[in-house]
Design goal:
The protein is built from 13 helices and 20 strands. With 551 residues, the chain is of the alpha/beta class. The chain binds flavin-N7 protonated-adenine dinucleotide. Residues 64-69, 87-90, 154-157, 161-162, 165-169, 265, 296-297, 335-338, 340, 344, 490-491, 518-519, 529-531, 534 line the site of flavin-N7 protonated-adenine dinucleotide (FAE).
Length: 551
């Protein structure tokens, strides 16, 4: 895809100097920040996307990106009385396709699946050693597979960011590990206030364990639990934002199926409490939020009269450029994700637009120790599999290699005897985003060999499970005779680490009113699936920013 299609071209527009206006329009208070949003319908968030940002606008607050960090910022700023503009490079997923569905499923991916690709790029891209990707039309699809030198990074694209495509696993990290990775953050405050606030607002729920024991759709999880337990490992139920009551009704054939119809990484048509239905809907309901989908921020720099001059490119769903826009924002909240925020800041620093950013910007990136693996089992795993994982193997305490392995589905619609896992390991390796002046792009220094500690830890655990069960690894799913899914990432973290690249609340030093609020704040690892950590940290930082900077 060329520059025009990516919307990454940088328009050179002169923004008029504008006077600083009052940032707070209402009575912002911590009381507002403590309020928990009700679960409302997606319609409200969609309504906020009806009026897009105009060229030349001067706005009090601009949020870049609508994933977890962006959604928290949107809710807490609007509740504090701030008129807020949110811009998102992906589309607002509200219009059904010709099949009547908004999203396609994993068995029949079409143009809706991938962000401007002509061929799908599935994480499990092979079967029996044969490549199983298929041709699709280039379109503003919901899942991006962004290729760097030695890894590709999956990210959600659309209003709701990663919440549209992820497995919904809503895991609060172990406190001891949280204290290890973010020692500057008051853990008491996090575990008594901000983690509970985040999980409530996200709509996290837990599975009915009695139902789990008999549900056909979790046969695969029970089988993996049995082999893990037999080898001496502990399993644990994992909360999720997918509505388990709805899933029960799916299993009973009372409602249209989504998690039970192979829908996950290209979106869920029903059942999932993605951010457009929770945080963003509640923010939109304040009447103070405008969402501009298909708007990519390409550049930002201090504006002559104060605030920040921000350049945007608006595209249509086919990738054609509709407009280049230039706006001025009093405050900018960067929520473009670990990759998006890091790339933007690294290139702005290198190009002299934010020249005084600290050298820690772009550093400290990690893949949360991600590595995938599959075993060929003896037990039936089920033709019907819920796309939403509900269980993990918790071997984090093992000094020989901490692993928290999500028991993942393989929802092929037919019995395959496959036991699939996403292992989250404690990989100490980190990489950096670097501006490449010859290409004008930002590279990631991650090398293939840096994944080895993750493989070693996972192998240590799964070798024992295989030995006890008399089973073997599948070598046909991630390439031709390739055991480990080690060249892609679901959990990019870091690049703008809290208390290193920013202050202890996400403020960028030297640039008043410029904040980072997303997964780039987390130093490369959180030991579990990361969105609860990202959300809770954003809650904490926004509470502080609203109380001090906006008072
Ligand atoms: P994110 O959600 O990625 O949002 C960033 C947003 O910014 C995106 O919507 C981008 O399109 C947008 N954007 C980027 N650049 C620009 C720009 N220049 N201009 C305008 N907009 C821009 O960031 N995590 C879990 O905890 N549990 C799971 O079960 C889980 N499963 C996953 C499964 C898959 C397939 C994937 C891909 C991820 C999964 N994750 C899971 C990871 C999780 O979704 C991810 O950590 C969060 O979404 C990251 O949140 P951020 O707010 O940092």
């Amino acid at each position: 895809m060329d520059d025009e299609q990516t919307g990454r071209s940088t328009p050179a527009r002169q923004s008029a100097p504008l006077s600083r206006r009052g940032f707070l329009l209402g009575t912002g208070s911590l009381l507002g920040a403590a309020a928990v949003p009700a679960l409302t319908t997606a319609g409200t968030a969609a309504a906020a996307a009806q009026q897009v940002i105009t060229d030349g606008a001067r706005v009090p607050a601009l949020i870049v990106g609508s994933g977890y960090g962006g959604a928290v910022a949107a809710l807490r700023l609007t509740q504090a009385g701030v008129q807020t503009q949110l811009v998102e490079m992906g589309q607002s997923w509200t219009t059904p396709g010709s099949d009547g569905k908004i999203f396609c499923n994993m068995l029949n991916p079409d143009q809706r699946s991938f962000w401007f690709r002509t061929r799908t790029d599935q994480p499990v891209g092979y079967f029996s050693g044969i490549e199983v990707n298929k041709s699709i039309s280039s379109y503003a699809g919901v899942l991006d597979s962004e290729q760097f030198a030695a890894t590709r990074i999956y990210q959600g694209r659309g209003v709701g960011g990663g919440s549209l495509v992820n497995g919904g696993m809503a895991v609060t990290p172990k406190r001891s590990y949280f204290e290890e990775i973010l020692p500057s953050v008051d853990a008491d405050e996090m575990y008594t206030t901000y983690f509970p606030r985040a999980t409530t607002a996200l709509g996290v729920n837990t599975i009915d364990q009695t139902w789990f024991e008999s549900a056909d759709c979790y046969q695969y999880a029970r089988v993996s639990r049995k082999t893990a337990t037999n080898a001496g490992f502990t399993t644990t139920f994992v909360p999720n934002v997918y509505d388990f009551t709805y899933m029960k009704a799916e299993q009973a054939s009372q409602v249209p199926r989504s998690a039970l119809a192979s829908e996950v990484i290209y979106g869920n048509n029903y059942g999932k409490r993605s951010l457009d239905k929770t945080y963003l809907a509640a923010a939109a309901a304040t009447g103070r939020l405008t969402i501009s989908p298909l708007h990519t921020v390409t550049s930002l720099a201090p504006a002559p009269g104060g605030g920040y001059s921000v350049q945007l490119t608006q595209i249509d769903t086919g990738g054609a450029v509709i407009a280049h826009k230039s706006v001025v924002a009093d405050r900018v909240f960067l929520a473009a994700g670990s990759v998006g925020t890091s790339k933007l800041l690294v290139s702005m620093k290198a190009q002299g637009r934010l020249a005084d950013l600290p050298s820690a910007v772009g550093q400290g990136w990690g893949n949360n120790g991600n590595v995938m693996v599959a075993r060929a089992g003896w037990d039936l795993t089920g033709a019907l599999q819920s796309g939403m994982p509900a269980m993990g193997i918790d071997n984090w305490a093992d000094p020989n290699g901490p692993v928290f392995a999500e028991i993942a589905p393989f929802p092929a619609g037919t019995e395959l005897w496959i036991n699939l896992y996403l292992a989250i390991t404690k990989n100490p390796n980190r990489a950096a985003f670097q501006f490449n002046s010859s290409t004008g792009q930002v590279d990631l220094t991650w090398q293939a060999a840096q994944t080895q500690p993750s493989i070693d830890a996972a192998k240590h655990m799964f070798d024992q499970i295989n030995a006890k069960a008399g089973t073997i690894y599948r070598t046909d799913l991630f390439g031709v005779y390739k055991t480990w899914g080690d060249d892609f990432v679901y959990h990019p973290l870091g690049g703008c680490v809290l208390n290193q690249a920013t202050d202890n609340y996400g403020r960028l030093p030297g640039y008043a009113g410029l904040y980072v609020v997303d997964g780039s704040l987390i130093p490369g690892s959180t030991g579990v699936n990361p969105f609860v950590t990202i959300t809770a940290l954003a809650e904490r930082n926004l509470a502080q920013i609203i109380a001090t900077d906006l008072a």
